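User: Second chain of the day. Same drill as before.
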Amino acid sequence: MPTGATPDVPGTADDPAERYRRALEGLLGVPATEGNHVEVLRNGDEIFPAMLEAIGAAEHTIDFLTYVYWSGEMAETFAEALAARAQAGVRVRVLLDAVGSAPMDDGLVAAMEEAGAQVGRFRPVSALHLGKVDHRTHRKVLVCDEAVGFTGGVGIADEWKGSARGPAEWRDTHFRVRGPAVDGLRAAFVDNWAETTTKLFDEGIDRFPLQPGDGSSCVQVVRGASEPGPSDISTLVHALLQLARRRVRITTAYFVPDPETETLLCEAVSRGVEVDLLLPGPHADKRFVQLAGESDYEQLLEAGVRAFAFQPTMLHAKIMTVDGVVANVGSANLNSRSMALDEEVNMVVFDPAVVAELDAHFDDDLRRSEELDLKRWRERGPIQRLAERAAALGDRQF
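Assistant: Same format as last time:
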């Protein structure tokens, strides 16, 4: 077999999705589950109403974990909805990353706690725990009544309202899921919640029901942990790049690839895979992170990777589709933080119908993007080059 060629997985030639499933199950040791309903929610106009509907309908339990919880209308709306269910007797657990939720109004936390909700801060910044300060939870998880789960890229802030029509409405994607994969999302919540308490569940409240399996999607839930060495998220991304045969489409808010990822992107192109990157454009919310990624553009473009800059607003989605049959979606970006430093959770969806919907959204976004031209990029000025080099010095922090 030629060097760099992608081997066949025995017994799966007639089912490309099964080929990816078995390879990833074998590499990650995480079984996929069948029979899930996966619904793609695009932008705040679809995402926030769906999440609030699930919260409002909850009768037993709500588990909510997020990195971003800022101030404003949506912050108040979610706090009021969670407090209302707690007041009604629902067991409500809210876990906020101590850094990502720093801008949050403390009054909203007090209101939820007064209503009976349990609110925790993940890894508060403390001189006694400096080793953990840089390791955050970037997971976004909502599970209601152990039956419906949500994950994706959206945070709780007004920036995500609307439908990406302009700079005030960020572009993002979230996912609503029912079925066995909900257990994986709940485990991602409990995994982080366990750092705040020894009580993982409540007898008589947590029912651990058998999940229905009448959906059409096969889903693998992969958790990334902030620990030394490559995380499972890193293994997942690298495996998909190595397995790809025809096309890889990546949408990411923060693109700062490590050398291994950059090499795999280039190698995929060299064996005939079409690789497209959809990245933030002029409305990037963290210019220094964008600069760190731009230091890699020339090498990637020279290798044949195509890159596009989204023009209308900040692009915050985190989506990877491969060969039209598998999607890697969730909270993780294609950067060092998500691959090694932060706690993340992603769903791998082995369902061509879901992938087709995501690819259609990718095509829509490309129509509002500008492709980066290698010749023009080579002609960028010395100030831009100097800024890239300076930003790249700290790229492991991005």
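The longest strand covers residues 33-42.

User: Great, on to the next one.
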